[in-house]
User: Which sequence fits this backbone?
């Protein structure tokens, strides 16, 4: 058989060809045009070779495959845009043909006449699982690393290579919908229980078991190609389906508020596809897929949640030429709420940590927090007992600053108080080695100001974590005026080591994420003052696609934090910097002890578990209430998203955020900004800057000057520009 670039083929004495997918120079297999071409040729070759009785398909990497190469889809978008400008109808036809490529190839495999078995040795996602589904047999390893998923919905699309048709013909429709509309991962055992894989075996039995299926006479015919096939549960026209289908769109709407066309398309594909023969069903899927690929949601989500996130994670903003830091020791000073969890994530990355606090007892308390987090992870099966023990052995609690004398990086997370930070900075400086980097986790104090506490401001930087540190994927890296390249590179190396996604922003009050978050909360204060019922504010936020309502979020970050921020702003910038109605509301909450979740009461009341939190009824008495039917929910949704997006635009205008990818990714990972929009700036670009400006003007006329479009937006609207066009991150790199 010919040589292939991405596959190895070995045929054994029983005539079973073992096709091993192992792309050179890549840590993970992905489906590219070249891989599809080769696979096509392999199908032809194995069919033509009379010596081959069947094929076992597996991967030579530790994972099976991550699925389609989404950068291929990105270039498809670019091509589409160019072709649409020339001839829209033909562009769509071409897209339709392109989307059918993978699906057609898998159908060819399925009907090739020889049995194929997929041997799933590790993570198997998206298009790769769809490939496995087209094989006649599927065996998965029982290793912990095996995760099976069709996660396309998370980037705005759906399984468009037969997934929406094969899954509900193997599993019951409810499980199939659940799996595909949430994109959640299955273990091998769960996949087997659902009927998606035939066997789950120990890793070293994987290939023998797959071969055995062929030796045992596996039929090279998919169940749906057999006469009389019926989908599990009997298909659409059954009493059980009559229960499921009327409810399914309502459940989806409850979960997604109708914001995700990709998710709705899954329902349509399954419902319509199950009523027709398989090949027609694939055509239905192909049509919906072509449609979904043309949505703004798919474009923006793929760009932000896949491509940009990956680029930022791989150090898109890292200065070239600075050698990579391999961390031998990281010091954390302040072993409190944040410091302890920063210590935990650092040790989880295999880096030794010194955890310093005012005295040994306080430092030990920090370590005990790490112990709690570790035992939680062990209990949930996320790490083994031994891994947990190793993690904890890397954390040394102490009150002795001398332990920092060989640290590569120190992160300060003491009280948010300038004097305390100054005193601590002096102690750190006294012992910190020459080339080491000093970072602060401050959330409100400008980095340039804090840098004055050190003798080496070029080596001082902000590394701003979000709570809960072990769950939040984002880290904001803040450059002070004098921060140098080495500090930036080290900070980014550190963020990469702890496997979080960084955004790099210039210094400003609130940096990027908190500036946006407090606009969101501020708009909710406005609404409360106007007498909008609190439940409508919270629900409108969720309908707009936000994961947490603004009042709930304020309770989480603490209402007294808002109060402190207002006080600091008034002290530094004058009384006009804070809306007096906001100050009055927050002061009242604080005076009543309604400080948020930590106090058991805030905008919500927090009764003992298992009771759920409830909006505080007293909110109704604070302001004369509008009648719910007189409040326009659409406008509430717009106000909440627009105020955040406008703030993001201001940060770009002020030179705080310099790369649109960072604004978008930061907004989704930092505070869950309606992911279907692709993030704050994609939200603006998606509707068009001119439309956004009109919307801002309309809102400003009714709800206040804070909605007025900024000069940058007016200029961009006049010129017909987009953020990704005017601040093109790739042009910058090419020019450099
Ligand atoms: P915290 O009060 O829980 O912890 C502060 C710790 O610093 C305490 O353990 C305290 O004993 C220790 N400390 C105080 N003075 C010290 C000194 N002189 N020497 C050594 N240790 C000292 O506070 P936190 O919420 O963990 O916040 C710490 C920092 O992180 C602040 O700058 C805050 O702005 C920032 N931050 C907090 C959050 C959050 O959600 N809480 C989020 C991002 C950033």
Assistant:
């Amino acid at each position: 058989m010919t040589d292939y670039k991405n596959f190895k083929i070995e045929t054994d004495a029983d005539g079973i060809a073992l096709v091993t997918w192992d792309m050179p120079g890549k840590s993970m297999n992905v489906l590219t045009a070249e891989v599809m071409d080769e696979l096509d040729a392999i199908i032809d070759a194995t069919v033509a070779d009379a010596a081959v009785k069947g094929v076992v398909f597996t991967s030579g990497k530790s994972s099976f495959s991550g699925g389609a190469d989404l950068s291929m889809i990105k270039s498809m978008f670019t091509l589409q845009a160019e072709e649409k400008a020339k001839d829209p109808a033909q562009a769509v036809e071409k897209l339709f043909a392109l989307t059918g490529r993978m699906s057609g190839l898998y159908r060819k495999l399925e009907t090739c006449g020889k049995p194929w078995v997929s041997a799933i040795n590790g993570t198997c996602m998206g298009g790769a699982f769809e490939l496995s589904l087209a094989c006649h047999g599927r065996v998965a390893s029982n290793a912990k690393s095996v995760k099976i998923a069709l996660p396309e919905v998370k980037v705005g699309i759906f399984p468009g290579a037969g997934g929406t048709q094969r899954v509900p013909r193997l599993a019951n429709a409810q499980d199939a919908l659940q799996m595909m509309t949430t994109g959640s991962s299955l273990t091998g055992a769960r996949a087997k229980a659902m009927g998606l894989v035939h066997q789950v075996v120990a890793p070293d039995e994987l290939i023998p078991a797959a071969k055995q299926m062929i030796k045992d006479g596996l039929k090279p015919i998919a169940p749906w190609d057999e006469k009389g096939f019926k989908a599990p549960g009997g298909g659409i026209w059954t009493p059980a389906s009559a229960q499921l289908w009327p409810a399914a769109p309502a459940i989806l709407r409850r979960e997604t508020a109708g914001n995700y066309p990709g998710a709705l398309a899954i329902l349509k594909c399954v419902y319509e596809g199950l009523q027709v023969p398989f090949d027609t069903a694939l055509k239905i899927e192909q049509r919906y897929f072509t449609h979904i690929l043309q949505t703004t949601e798919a474009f923006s989500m793929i760009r932000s949640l896949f491509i940009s996130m990956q680029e930022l994670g791989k150090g898109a903003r890292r200065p070239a030429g600075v050698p990579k830091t391999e961390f031998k020791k990281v010091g954390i000073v302040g072993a409190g709420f944040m410091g302890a969890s920063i210590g935990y994530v650092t040790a989880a990355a295999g880096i030794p940590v010194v955890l310093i606090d005012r005295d040994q007892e306080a430092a030990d308390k920090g370590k005990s927090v790490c112990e709690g987090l570790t035992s939680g992870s062990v209990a949930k099966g996320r790490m083994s007992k031994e891994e947990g023990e190793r993690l904890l052995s890397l954390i040394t609690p102490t009150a002795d600053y001398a332990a920092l004398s060989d640290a590569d990086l120190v992160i300060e997370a003491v009280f948010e108080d300038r004097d305390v930070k100054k005193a601590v900075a002096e102690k750190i400086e006294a012992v910190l080695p020459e080339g080491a980097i000093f970072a602060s986790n401050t959330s409100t104090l400008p980095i340039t100001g804090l840098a004055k506490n050190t003798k080496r401001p070029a080596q001082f930087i902000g590394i701003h974590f979000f709570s809960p540190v072990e769950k939040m994927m984002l880290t904001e890296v803040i450059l002070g005026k004098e921060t140098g390249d080495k500090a930036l590179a080290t900070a980014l190396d550190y963020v990469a080591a702890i496997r979080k996604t960084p955004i790099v922003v210039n210094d400003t009050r609130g940096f990027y994420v908190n500036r946006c978050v407090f606009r969101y909360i501020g708009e909710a204060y406005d609404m409360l003052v106007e007498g909008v019922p609190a439940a409508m504010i919270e629900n409108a936020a969720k309908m707009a696609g936000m994961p947490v309502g603004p009042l709930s979020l304020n309770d989480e970050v603490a209402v007294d934090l808002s109060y402190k921020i207002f006080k600091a702003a008034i002290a530094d910038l004058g009384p006009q910097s804070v809306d007096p109605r906001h100050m009055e509301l927050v002061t009242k909450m604080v005076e009543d002890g309604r400080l948020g979740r930590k106090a058991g009461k805030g905008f919500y009341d927090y009764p003992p578990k298992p009771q759920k939190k409830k909006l505080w009824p007293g909110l109704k008495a604070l302001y004369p209430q509008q009648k719910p039917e007189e409040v326009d929910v659409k406008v509430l949704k717009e106000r909440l998203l627009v105020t955040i997006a406008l703030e993001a635009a201001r940060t770009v205008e002020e030179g705080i955020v310099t790369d649109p990818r960072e604004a978008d990714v930061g907004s989704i990972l930092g505070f869950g900004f309606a992911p279907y929009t692709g993030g704050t700036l994609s939200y603006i670009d998606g509707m068009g800057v001119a439309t956004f400006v009109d919307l801002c003007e309309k809102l400003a006329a009714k709800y206040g000057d804070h909605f007025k479009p900024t000069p940058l937006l007016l200029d961009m609207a006049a010129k017909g520009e987009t953020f990704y066009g005017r601040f093109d991150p790739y042009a910058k790199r090419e020019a450099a």
Notes: The chain has a mean pLDDT of 95.
